[in-house]
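Supplementary material to the annual report.
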Amino acid sequence: MMRLTTALLAATMLGGAAQAKTIAVAPGPDAQERIQTALLDAKPGDTVQLAAGRYELSDGLSLDVDDVTVKGAGPDATVLSFKGQKGAGEGLLVTSDRVTVRDLGVEDTRGDGVKSKASDQISFINLRVEWTGGPNEKNGAYGVYPVSSTNVLIDKVVVKGASDAGIYVGQSKNIVVKNSRAEFNVAGIEIENSMNADVFDNVATHNAGGILVFDLPNLPQMGGHSTRLFRNKVVQNDTANFAPKGNIVAQVPTGTGVMIMANRNVHVFENEIAENQTAAVMLVSYVQKFDDKTYNPLPRDIVVRDNKLGRNGWDPKFDGGAVLAKMMGGTLPPVMWDGVTSFPGTSDPVRVVISNGPILNLNLPAPGALLAAKPKVEPTLGDAKIAEPSPVVLPKRQADLGA
Amino acid sequence: MKRLVAALAAVMCLGAAPTPAPVALDALLAEAPAPKLSDYRLFRDAGGRAPNGLTPYGLNTPLFTDYAEKHRFLYLPPGAKAAYRADGVLDFPVGATLVKTFAYPADLRRPDQKVRYLETRLLIHKREGWAALTYVWNEDQTEAVLKRAGARIDVSFVDAHGQARRIDYAVPNQNQCKECHQLDKTLSPIGPKARNLNGTYAYAGGAENQLAHWSRLGLLAGAPKPDKALRTARWDDPAEPLEARARAYLDVNCAHCHNPRGVASNSGLFLNLEETRAAALGVGKGPVAAGRGSGGLKVGIEPGHPEQSILAYRMASDEPGVMMPELGRTITHEEGLALVRAYIAGMKPQ
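Predicted assembly:
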């Protein structure tokens, strides 16, 4: 009997999947209510198809149904404009699992662009998220913003104008960011308080900072580790930092290629990093005061190898940078490490292996202790064997979306 | 004229059926929501003014919603009781329904006159869990219909200071209801915690403590005497300690998201009454994903300095992307803001 019930149940579920339908929405009056209703009516397996055209939205949209695809006719063809947004913290919020948002453009949200919170298997594919007025501190913080999510795929996404990070993955696990382009943001791509991320084949250009890997204190998920940054083009990050003060990215010096703050086991290899006026790669400690005994503010187990480093560091935009550059003969070495090797209460060994120099080691005795710096330039640094994290593997169905 | 006809019709109906039919429990428990509020028979009249045997209640400290008046009622199926819980909301039985009507008097100084109903929200405890629905009233105030995708309503009123106000009131969409009403992704009521109900209500038959009243009527089991139970402070009672009032205000207005199991868990800012860690409460804590919401300020709370505290900055704003809470208001709650500013100002500078 039990088996029969199970069989019936399975049949019913299969039946349900077979009946997966497409809910079509076209531009026009009441777009807000019509799209939102479609997002509420969708059943698992359904696709909400947004026809080409411009949708003028007055409030945030949200999706809370599992297994739904929200699909437009292309990032320039289907445009969700939030210029007249009156409420909500983002343009589109996804809080369910196995959701794909693809082939559409999102413009001028008042807060963040597209966000997922606590989603499993969330995919953002072929999207354009843009603040059309260009860099401005009044723009929303994040363009594409999965947080507290697992199995995150970001593929062929373009983000422009975010006042924090264009592509921001926070407190998440198992992450792939690829084939995407971030420009004119404060930070191009940022992986924060996250575990196991592969960031590759992206372009980060004309941001203040290209690609950041951070770990911050006082958050539910800390101890970020195991990120690989490879085959990215991190060039000409030259937009003056326009982040509102107080935000951690406001501390990113204009013209930074790759910046790693705190975090563990980050491998930076085979990237092209050039024309960044402050530095190609910076490894720094978290320097602000914090009250969190479980937090380690130092970058450790960091590998920088086999990158193609062009001209970098000719006009560093951090405090004391100009003087330092003068001391170095006008240009800083492309890779810079604050050199902090211990912090009270932490036991992780600090290992840094850089074969891709020269390196400016500031040899600071403690995070931010710039006045006690003993700067030293070295051709390479460290010889520890630090195993590279294994490639991130997404569930097959999700991985196929980005194939 | 239309209204007169409606009123006459209502009187005739009442005349014809002096004992109203009971609340439609089957409609409340049905899988699909009813299209009209009247389908549930929660009210005896078409205008939703006369509750059908519901128990009115109030909260010591309520959520601010653009100065809307709120009329709250509890419905319990015949013979069913809620069970007392010291922490969190009461344990309500299946069928329990929380009814909340949002209304604006034309002039807040005369709350009983020319009252316009905007929406009536229901939280229904169905067999499979809680469901959140809202019904929006028509202009004639004769019918409220289900609205799932949210709406904006143009509302004018005169505020408590005699100032004319005009707002673009936001009816939440069904997902937005859930954004606030959830713990670990499961929908849950927010308001009726024993501690926030532990206060006096002016019933038709006289004032009485709500926990005592519910216990006496057999609606609530297991409650201790009110003076032995926790009590959330009244945010607007100057006789209560400032910190207790401010923490109550933050608990009710912020902590439905800003708690370790809520939508804003990723912020690490936890404003629920149970939180005791200074950094989690925002003291000296840098913003995480605030963006321009930081207002160029460095920490959530700078003790002694509300003007340097992101918490007060975001409460003062009415701009999407900056203002907090993100949902539930379109204008600033000046009195709540003043309270939180005073609380921060009273903290010892570090």
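Chain B touches chain A through 46 residues (CB under 8 Å).
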